[in-house]
Amino acid sequence: MANNFGAFLALIMTIVMVPALLWLLIQSLRASHYNKPVREGMNRAYQGIQNLKLNGSTTGNTGRMHLANAQEHFDMARTAIQSSRYKEALTHVQLAELNIQEASRYYKITGNHPIPPSGRLITEGSGLVWLG
Prior knowledge:
Layout: H1 2-55, E1 56-57, H2 61-82, H3 86-106, E2 108-109, E3 120-124, E4 127-131
Antiparallel strand pairs: 1-2, 3-4
């Protein structure tokens, strides 16, 4: 009877562990696929937003609206990264970059303040980590 219980326990462990390991493998592969585009896009978006905030000036609300939208998409991308939703993060990064481009049409760069490097997206293991 002990042999039957051991075989049953091994079967249950196999049924539970194999799908879990496959899921982890798939998540790791997806993360490594999106790592570089998300990391580079987040860093570009951060630089663009900070540049317009520190060095830009505008008289109209249209540029401010686009900059606020870019910041919102940037924050949503950061939230998606923390939840390991890299495809969604990439979409939000692309939308943030489009809003930055649109906002830069209404902003005039007047200063030359350096961008603080406090916010950076780095690769750690198979995932991404936002420092800042």
